[in-house]
Design brief:
This protein has 8 helices and 7 strands; from the N terminus they run ααββαβαβαβαβαβα. The protein is of the alpha/beta class and 248 residues long.
């Protein structure tokens, strides 16, 4: 089906809840929460279903690897696109997820901004001091533990523009790990970097693929050495998985 028709169908899915949440957010937290939950549970799967139907864009979430996951855990993953958020929502739709993201996403991003604020995801101020960022993460970590939510952090800190896995930074992960004291799931994803721009969507959406897989679950780290080892090994596992996918 022509790209323009696919775009129209996608707008029909995402625009109504996006507009409703913009209206509801300043009026009623309860209404905004209901709309945000609808976006997570209904809109994200529908977006991938539409892309699969009309553009043959495949969502390849590895179901068997999810059997590795315990009841409660923290996720570290590589980061390629804003679409990584709905990707995880679709892959782990049976869990209540909360993301660590830059605070720019909490403003002026249709469908996403009000949802991130209403559900109290961790919005890190990019221009604030490191102390402010750490206090924000600590408060976030205490919330997800109290509410039995799954925290997801992208240790690269920013999206990869070319699909290569960047350096994993330790400060944010350490603050969360030391607060939540949960097992750590290493998750690899690939495909988002190809459709992270309008030009990329035009060239790579048709018959493209977005892959995600749980690679390993570590016991809750007890020391800083454990945390450093998990980050280092986790990045190596992700790099290896991306190489395997791309060689297929």
């Amino acid at each position: 089906m022509p790209t323009i028709l696919t775009f129209i169908f996608l707008l029909q899915v995402v625009l109504p809840p996006a507009i409703l949440n913009i209206i509801a957010y300043p009026v009623s937290h309860r209404w905004s929460m209901a709309i945000s939950n609808y976006i997570v549970k209904v809109c994200a799967p529908r977006v991938f279903a539409l892309l699969a139907m009309y553009k043959q864009f495949r969502f390849l979430g590895d179901k068997k690897s999810k059997e590795l996951l315990p009841e409660h855990f923290v996720v570290i993953s590589n980061h390629q696109s804003l679409l990584d958020i709905p990707l995880f929502m679709n892959y782990m739709r049976d869990k209540e997820l909360r993301f660590v993201a830059k605070d720019q996403l909490s403003r002026h991003v249709p469908l996403v901004s009000e949802m991130l604020r209403t559900q109290e995801h961790c919005m890190i101020p990019r221009r604030g001091s490191p102390m402010v960022a750490m206090k924000t993460m600590e408060a976030f970590s205490k919330r997800v533990i109290a509410r039995n939510q799954i925290p997801i952090i992208f240790p690269e800190g920013t999206r990869s523009r070319d699909g290569k896995v960047g350096k994993f930074y330790s400060a944010g992960f350490r603050k969360i790990a030391e607060t939540v004291k949960l097992p750590v799931a290493v998750v690899a994803l690939d495909g988002g970097w190809k459709i992270s721009s309008l030009d990329g969507i035009a060239r790579n959406l048709y018959k493209g693929a977005y892959r995600v897989k749980v690679l390993k679950v570590y016991d809750a780290p007890q020391t800083k050495e454990d945390e450093a080892r998990i980050l280092e090994e986790g990045r190596e596992l992700i790099v290896k998985q991306l190489e395997e996918w791309r060689a297929q």
